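Shipment paperwork, digital attachment
Item: protein structure file
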Amino acid sequence: MELDVEDCYRAVRARDAAHDGRFFTCVKSTGIFCRPICPARTPKVENCVFVPTAAAAMAAGYRPCLRCRPESAPGSDAWRGTEATVARALQLIDDGVLNDGDVASLAELLGVGERQLRRLFAQHMGTTPIAVAQTRRVLHAKRLIHDTDLPMIEIALASGFGSVRRFNETFRRMYGRPPGELRRRGAVATLTK
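Attachment content:
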């Protein structure tokens, strides 16, 4: 995305709220990046680099301003609120972060404390991050049991379980029967149709 330097600088000088979240100002002389509404002294135009996102500024090596907090600009996760944090957490859980890590590492990736993450899950999901991860693993395994002929060990590993024993325990706790019985019942159901 090509940003017009003159338009951006004009918005920074005016501290124009209409441009807040649309671009960020990277200041070469300080190594920080700001929102267009930052109350700090306006930098010289030759010290400014304008980028479309906070991620682009950070990728270029700039750190966020402590005064205007660019991570809370309109459109950012902080601006959208706690639902955005939970949505990001759910995506990371789907990507397998809790298969190898724990809730503390998930919270660190999200930039929140572990207790805060647990509170957000209780508020928005009604359960814990671990319970969500286990449910998603079991549902994925159940789909593989029904749709494939993979051996149970491969299903357990493909679903994010570290061992067949853990897979069997979790499956039995959630469904009241071992996973193999579900496959046998599925085979019997298809034979009787």
